């Protein structure tokens, strides 16, 4: 830094390991013109992780994980699901949850929401055994004119999960760009907070 010139540095960012945070703090104390910033991508990722672990979303995440596992491992269901997707013209299939990237939980929830019409077709075909979760994917209004309480509750909470988490996932993608700066993070963070507040407070969300 001294060789290049301290005046050429404005901001120092570290990841959230203790050693890196300590080193960043010491450098900022020594170079008074530096701003020390946290790892914003990590913080947003942690936010997504905390959201999907909320008790309110526990049952929805269980159904999402179970549905994806079923349509990735049961051969007859895989085949029927492919046929159903073609029939209802859904291009992208279900996406698995990654082990290290927490935002993939939201992406997986989005994929289940997107594929609901295809899953309903698989149930309608009545060839593959999807009995464990089929009640959650029934049409919201049944042919008898009655509404499906389980399906309504699941799809409503799934929609809330997507509404809360999807903007954070999009922000993570944008903030990984080389051109992203502190101002971008400030705008994205407030947009995420606003989206969460609107979802929580809106009676129709």
UniProtKB/TrEMBL annotation:
InterPro entries: RNaseH-like_sf. It comes from the Eukaryota. This is Uncharacterized protein.
